[in-house]
Amino acid sequence: MTATPLLDSLNDAQQLAVSAPPGALLVLAGAGSGKTRVLTHRVAWLVQTQQISPLAVLAVTFTNKASREMRGRIEELLRMPLGGMWMGTFHGLCHRLLRMHFEAAGLPQNFEILDSDDQYRQIRRVLRELSLDEAHWPPRQIQWAINSHKEEGRRAQNLPAGNDIQQQTLHKIYLAYDELCRRFHLVDFAELLLRSLELLQRNQTIRESYQQRFQHVLVDEFQDTNAIQYKWLRLLSERSKNLFVVGDDDQSIYGWRGARVENLLSFEKDFPGATVIRLEQNYRSSGNILRAANAVIAHNAGRLGKELWTTRADGEKIRLYAASNEIDEANFTVASIESWVAGGNRRDGCAVLYRSNAQSRVFEEKLLSAGMPYRVYGGLRFFERAEIKDALAYLRLVSNRDSDPAFERVVNLPTRGIGAKTLEEIRRCARAQQISLWCAAKQTIAADRLPPRASAAVQRFLEIIAGMTAATADLELGEITDHVLIHSGLLEHYRNECGERAQGKVENLEELVTAARNFTPDETQEMGTLSLFLANAALEAGEGQADEWDDCVQLMSLHSAKGLEFPLVFLCGMEEGLFPHQRALEEPGRLEEERRLCYVGMTRAMKQLTICHAEIRRLYGREHYGQPSRFLKEIPTEHIEEIRATRMARSYTRSSGYGSGHGMGYAHGHASGHASRSSKNAPANSSLHTPTRPATPSATAIADPGFQGLKPGSQVRHQKFGEGMVLDLEGRGEHARVQVNFKDAGQKWLVCAHANLDLV
DNA sequence: GGGTTAACCTTTTTT
DNA sequence: AGGTTAACCC
User: Residue A135's pLDDT is what?
Assistant: First the structure.
């Protein structure tokens, strides 16, 4: 028994962390080691035993979901509501700061949040205004570049103009974009963070009041923080020095979007005297799974170092299945799930994990034909759907007519005779006088610069908006939304659209009214409920799928799986080029992140982990010969059991929809399968399929004279590049190409007809 | 203004 | 391959 019941249910390391004395503290929390428990108990402990007011605590997470869950759990522990405690995502908290101190932050009170889609549109608008060709200046890349700058804290004004024309133009676009945002009161996601940081940096009074208020700052998923988030945290905890961060360098999988593991790796250096506590006891996975995951992650260099252990039994070995293609892979997976469910287990205990979302389709098809309910994570979320964004745009105009993004979006939706010409005229007027599109539209009509028809159409649009504003002034949010949907003509527009999708859109719009009716702002401010609703829609896009099925198989990318756990996990598509992803192989330093992703995937599994790879995979209309992922070779063989397909269960051709699966037809191999595992390096030689592979298109390609008898695994010599191994083949005849990994020259695609390759 | 065709892109995702 | 988006034509 410990001093407080809060600590009773914790292990030694967890107790140490939860009851640590004030100061900087890093909890290195391995997968499944009770990270969330430590965070929630820490807050509860501070409040309960240290007489810290919840108002003096700042707790930061990365997702709204995590934040909600954490709040709920702490409230449960304390048996009291945490009402005024500052707890939320970085973006949510920064937004709150900016709303409260908009003036000091140099923002108008009615600033609007741009989500990435809105931001993309604005960038295109800037490109248009600068007369830059989108083909040469891809908006996506510009968006990425601008966000990277902001996330590193670099303002356009402070950037050097750059040496080459590329950099100079980018700089020009960045400047113009920021100017546009300033002019129209727009704040993008990165801007929320940067602006908030600058507010604290520049305004001493505000800074000190928050530094004084927040006696304890706690951060979840610290390995995912980017440069400004880290600065923001340091600044806020500068006075109290109580920064409690929880993270796992081995689960850092968002480096590609600006997250800096370095923040975690150098924590002890940045905070001299900081305590580091390791949580290494894993409560999730059985021994085989855990040791295999440990072995894989051990291949990474530059780790803080951690080795998970468990008191659990070894459990089942990791099942390894070499599928002939992605269809076979899906059939096998579905069959396995079927027998698991037949054994009385829940479907939602099964997860199919993959590297890229494109892989989900085959699984969906097979699950569908097996009559197995499933749920795919990822994809468009509620507030990101086009029809919802249309409706929100109307609401935005009602709340603030000067919102240009909203104006652009719905001025002619449903179509009301306002075409590109008319719009261009209005835009020109707006640009020339630095006024909003709304004002420009008014002026354009007044100045009689439009043909009568167009003029009348614009006039009608302005009246619709003005009419809605007047009519909804005294209504509740739900009724406002309802009114706007009807009087904008939007609902009618989607009702008239035919097809299944249109019906879903109408349903979504109706759901929006429900969402609006149920919306209760969690902060009472001078801002109208409508504005808060709109800000909330941008910050919290809602669940990926509207209807959450009760008990269904879970399909998701490895990234989405972080933080979750399932008794039964399938890790699919474990092939070189797919996982680790080709793009990751091309960029230096990305391989380790892929390995961490693999580690994350493996450690999701509690009872049984199945890893699949396919010898041939059709992806984006091409067929690829994938060698088994290098990560497989990093798993000690004693943790692996190979599953072999009996001939009958195998789906050899793509067209046969054979083998919807009956949980039969797969034979369990034993540890003796090591020899054949190593043979997977040269899949074409595997005795399993070579003799019986029929003339699939790919097999034809191999027999094609263009390939001169090359196949994956062949050793070849090139006059210039030297020796190498064939990785992949595609196309046929004179267009046939071959991918070779040369010892010295690296990976290259060559046209067979010209390459003059010699078989070694 | 609506419907059709052609070009395009396709890692991972939250806010 | 497949889906979306942009240009294009009536």
Answer: 84
- For residue A414, whether the previous peptide bond is cis, meaning omega lies within 30 degrees of 0, is yes
The residue with greater pLDDT, A727 or A697, is: A727
Phi, psi of A60 (to 5 degrees): -115, 135
Query: C-alpha A122: how far from its chain's center?
Result: 22
Residue whose CA lies closest to nucleotide B10 C1': A620
In this structure, the number of other CB atoms found within 10 A of the CB of residue A501 comes to 10
Query: Do the beta carbons of residue A183 and residue A129 sit within 8 Å?
Result: no
- Two tokens, residue A200: 């604290």
Q: Would you call A446 exposed, middle or buried from its count of C-beta atoms within 10 A (0-12, 13-18, 19+)?
A: exposed
- Per DSSP, chain A holds a count of helices (H) and strands (E) of 32, 22
pLDDT higher than threshold 70 for residue A706: no
pLDDT at position A402 over 80: yes
Q: How far is CA A229 from the centre of its chain?
A: 18
Q: Is the CB of A91 under 7 A from strand B?
A: yes
Which among A637, A635, A638 is positioned nearest to A598, based on CA atoms? Answer: A635
User: Is A220 a residue of the active site?
Assistant: yes
Instruction: Please say whether the beta carbons of A742 and A724 come within 8 A.
Output: yes
Amino acid sitting at position A614: A
In this complex, the answer to whether residue A189 has its CB under 7 A from any atom of chain B, a nucleic strand, is: yes
Using alpha carbons, select from A243, A221, A223, A219 the residue that is nearest to residue A303: A223
**pLDDT tens digit sequence for A411-454:** 998 988 888 888 888 988 998 898 999 999 999 999 998 888 88
CA distances from A388 to A148, A152, A481, A486 (A): 28, 32, 11, 14
Going by the DSSP 8-state scheme, the letter that residue A258 receives in this structure is T
pTM assigned to the model: 0.85
Token pair listed for A437:
């599109």
C-beta of residue A139 within 8 angstroms of C-beta of residue A120: yes
Catalytic residue check, A35? yes
- Residue A535 · residue A113 · CB < 8 Å: yes
pLDDT, one tens digit per residue, over A198-228 is 999 999 999 999 999 999 999 999 999 999 9
DSSP character at residue A298:
T
Residue partners of A272: CB distance under 8 A and separation at least 6: none
The amino acid sitting at A443 is: Q
Q: Is the dihedral angle over the CA atoms A25, A28, A33, A35 positive or is it negative?
A: positive
Instruction: Identify the H or E element spanning A243.
Output: strand A243-247
The reply to whether A115 Cβ lies less than 7 angstroms from strand B is yes
